[in-house]
Specification:
The protein is an alpha+beta fold.
Length: 321
Amino acid sequence: MARRKLLLLLKPFDVYPVWRSENLSRISNPHERQMFRYLENRCNVHEDAVKFCQNILRNKPVEWKPIFRSNLSQPIRDVDLVVTIGGDGTLLQASHFMDDSIPVLGVNSDPTKAEEVEEFSNEIDTTRSTGYLCTATVNNFEQVLDSIIEGRIIPSRLSRMSISVNSQRLSTNALNDILVAHPCPASVSRFSLKIKGNDQSSSPLVHCRSSGLRVSTAAGSTAAMQSAGGFTMPILSQELQYLVREPISAGATSSLMHGLVKSDQSMDLTWFCREGVIYIDGSHVYHSIKNGDTIQLSSKAPILKVFLPHHLLEHSNEKGS
C-alpha cells in the first residue's frame, strides 16, 4: 500500500514577536504585563501543539512536509491530505490554494478555555482560537488521523463562493464570506444589486447606500454575518446569505436588504463609488474595484472537502429534517 502524502500547513510561531519574555522588563503597567504574558503563552501553546502533531506523524505510514502559511504561494497539488495547525484562519488560507480534489483537516492548536475566560473576565480578554471548522485538537489528533488513514471517516463537501468582476472570474474562491465596501469605513458605499436565476428571471433592482455588502457561505454564516444580524445556515447548504450593512433610508426596499441567493441563482452587483474593495475571507485577500464595475457572486465555485466536527454535521441534519 502506497504511503499517503500530507502537507502540514502551520500558523507562524512568532505571531506576537515583540511580546516575548525578554521584552517584558520594559513594561511597567501590570495590566499590560499580564496581557503580554497571556499572548506569550498562546505562542507557546501553539508551538507545543505543532511539535506534538509532528511527533505523531513520525510514527504513521505517511510522508509529510511542513510549511508555514506565510510561505504558501502556489496551488497545493500532489498530496493526499492537507493538515492545518492553527485555527480557522489557517484553514481559510489553505482553502485559497486548494481545488476540490484534496481534503483538509483542521487542528485547533490553541482552543479557548472556558475556565480561563471566566477567571480573567474582569481583567483581560482571554478568548483563544474558535476553530469552528477544526475537527481535531492535540487531545484527539491521533485518533482522527487514524480514522482518516484507515478510511473510517470521509470529508464533507463545503460550498464556496465564486466571484467575478467585469465577467472575469477571480482566482480566489471564498470559503467564509466577502465584504464589498469603500476602503474608508466612514464613507458611504453606493451600489445596486439583483438576484438572477438560471432561467434569466431576476428580482427587482435594489439601489443601496450603506456601509457595504456582506455575502457569506453556509460555513461563514456563524462568523461576521451572524454578528451583523444574519442567521446560522446548515453547514452543508449550497445557498449564499447576503446582508446590506447599515442601509440608509431603505424605505420600501428594506425587505430586500437581507436574504438568500439559492444554489441555482447568482447575485449581480454594480458599484457606484470612485473606489471600492472586495475583501475575501478577511482583510488579507482583497480585490480593488472602481465606479461602474460589475460583480457576480454565486455558489458555483468548486467545493472544498473538509473533515468537519461531528456536532456541526448533527446540527446540519437537525436543521435539514
